[in-house]
Amino acid sequence: MYEVEIKVPAAVGTVRERLVAEGTNAERRDARRQRDVYYDAPHRSFAETDEALRLRHETPLSDGIGSEPTGGTEAVMTYKGPLIDDASKTREEHETGVTDADAAAGVLDGLGFTPAATVSKEREFWALDGVTVTLDVVEEVGEFVEVELAVPDVGDVDEARGRAVATLDRIGLDADDQVRTSYLGLLCSQ
Amino acid sequence: MYEVEIKVPAAVGTVRERLVAEGTNAERRDARRQRDVYYDAPHRSFAETDEALRLRHETPLSDGIGSEPTGGTEAVMTYKGPLIDDASKTREEHETGVTDADAAAGVLDGLGFTPAATVSKEREFWALDGVTVTLDVVEEVGEFVEVELAVPDVGDVDEARGRAVATLDRIGLDADDQVRTSYLGLLCSQ
Question: Structure pTM?
Fold first, then answer.
């Protein structure tokens, strides 16, 4: 799958009001606290190759951003390849849940990967006419809204980007404000 | 945890009869078909460092070795560090289940790890007075019995090895027949 994602700085409270005003067109799916540990590789510089290896620790927030965590923490291991379309931040991605977060960290440590930085955020996921809209409050970085679609073929990326731009417009945001730097990059450039 | 493991070649049918003759002292726990994919690393030679990275695909065999698989396949990612005690094959090990075997393989592929060899076997796990006894039928390699204990501290390894040797003796096997080569090594040396 190819992921098309556009992220802009935005006051999440204002955007949430716009989504609520959409009525049945918009639906809040779920919300999560995420602690993302990014790793450095022993054999190449991910900063140079523009790859990422991440171990994410996720806890549900059933009442949205700012509410108390509910349920247990789950962990997900993700590899993100280099950008294949710079305009839309499109990457090839592989992601699997892991049943033992400490053991997964142990595997990576044994192989020579080392934790480089940690990004902590709270997210609300919404669906607006089939497009995923994510409200993000990122510790030490700020508030952002991401619009995201996944398509199976690289040939569908342009059309998906058009839908993403239109979705941003509908909730009062401008794709020209796009921030291409990852939260990790924003955190580390402070 | 430190794993103490002694493996000897043995006719698994004969050993199973001895375990059954132990009555309530021995209990068959479960049986599984395992397809183990071993990876080469991009940045060091696991053959030289004596490490291993494995993605295991496991399917339950509720009626033991030779029976039809039951239930779905699960996948487990394991890192094994170098030997810390050559006599008992003791290693530090990190192991986690993964919820998407194909994605886990995709993560490893993205990071530059490549499948090197695949070992397929059927295993029956027994417990004999608290010690794990495993009967293994390994495709293209042969039949073996492994006796295994896990202890939390490296200082407990000698005592655990003594229990492993005594357990082998009890089921008619001799620790002097120990095969220290892994199934992967045995497969690749043919």
Answer: 0.74
